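hey all, quick one before standup. I had two proteins in the batch that finished overnight and I want to keep them in one place so we stop losing track of which output belongs to which input. First protein below, input sequence then structure tokens straight from the run.
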Amino acid sequence: MAFEKFEGSGRGGSGSTQAKVSLRKSSSVGLNSVTLQEFFEEDDEGVVMYYDDDENRVGMEPVKDVDEPGAYTLTRSDSGGSISPGSFLKKHGLVPDRTMQFEPSVVDVKQNLSLVAFTAGKSEDFIGFYGSGDDD
């Protein structure tokens, strides 16, 4: 059997072609580069967070201005982006013991509002865990 070169880096952003949102034990939300490209505009500077208690769904509204009421700053890097909505995550019991990854989709909520959303917990949106419980 011949050796095959492994091209993936094992780091969440650069090698992945799947959109992923991560709930981190550091009370932050990670967005890989694919998620930023597919669901966010380059000039989006903030994210307004929403929660549907009945469906246990998290919704994120990309906004151009971080001064938008309720907006959290969207920080970007080469591998993706992150948001630090600690109080939001704690209020809804969404801070995991280990980083959890989910597949986001667009949900039309009302006429002028579409959200980047995923179902928290184990669901059809759950991709898996990232790292060990001691990482992050």
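OK second protein, same deal, sequence then tokens:
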Amino acid sequence: MTDLVDGVVVDYEGGWVRRRARYSAGVLHGESLRFGDLGGPLFVLHSDQRPALEHGDPGHLRPEFERHGLLLPEEAQILEDDPGVEWRVVQPERMLTIRRQDEDLSVCPGRVVQRTVYAAGEVVQLATLAGGRLHGRLTHFRPQAPPGAPLFSLPGDARGALDGDDIGALVPVFREAGHQLQTGATVSLVDAGREWFVAQVGQTFGVRQADRPPEHGLAVYPGRVTSRAAFRDGLLDGETTLYDELGGLVQAIGFRQGLLDGPLVVYRDGRPQSVGEYRDGRLHGELVTYDDRGQPATVATYREGQQSGPLRLIERGEPRVVAAYAKGRQHGQTVVYQPNGKELLVAPYADGRLDGERLLYSEDGRPLQRAGFAGGMLNGQSVDYYPSGEVRQISHYERDQLDGPLYVYDPDGRLLEERVYQEGTLVQQRERGSWLSRLWPT
């Protein structure tokens, strides 16, 4: 490699570009690429398209690409990797390579196999590719903050365990420093000889070469990874994870062929806050949220993305609401419980609307109201009770309007008043103790 410290540095091997990196003020800054071998051509451009390549003008290439079934979006860029010989077409879904071979311009799958983005010498993104598409891990890193005190240090000879992904050799060293490392943890190389990423369920660590001679050891910090995603042929496929500033796991979710598929776990302070399952891009099965003590707070059931099945709201291990859903709507009986465990409300639903007799209860379990509903509207007889359990009022509704006789009783069960309604309008009223009654015309 040349001694350039500002600009692009290119490494060749056998007449091919193998590495390409950008430097600023002597340190890596921007993208650094590693190239693999050239695959078979997808199609061939005529040599008269070369000026468009050299001017980085995808517009002139677009018709020819479309003729071969490939779209060049407006945001596509043409970058020169080897002057006059090789160009890279960068677009969101797929990277392509155009290579001059004799007078032809062969359009091939992109041959970049690793892309690393640096900011002032620190890795901020690391991706692996195959055939021009993301394939393998895509990792985003938080920029390195001004170095603080490390959690602890590893001896210099731990470098071999890190490079060899030998977790067994690291477990006792972590344990001695007061940090549990699980045998199922993994080690990933971030920057050769300078930084490694140690990941386990719930917590991650960053191991960096200490700012001293190598024999003096390695510093261990909270992991600075913000997200890791698994790709296959350009599509999310596998587990995607998000992390907080202290390296703690915030969310883990599975994908299959670009669709949400598999467990979804959201964490808070290292403990699951909600746990669900996706199938073919839609919630399917139980979705459970947890309270601050780690106990279930809600349990909902989904079928193909719609809430369908029982729903339970729980407080300190006791149910507060038990409801039934079908195709995203309440359907079946809903029961609301009081802190003492007695029923507060019993309500039947059909297709998201109240339908049947709804019951309200007092704190000691006595009925307060019985009301009939149909299609979400009061319909039929409604009975209200005194706290003693005696009937206070009996009325009748049709489609949410009072219709028919209404009786009012005193706490001893004696009739106090009688009214008659017609489609919500009071048409007659009679009070106890009066020989008069009032009549209103309809």
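Flagging for whoever picks this up: Helices lie at 50-54, 58-67, 159-163, 167-176. The first helix runs from residue 50 to 54.
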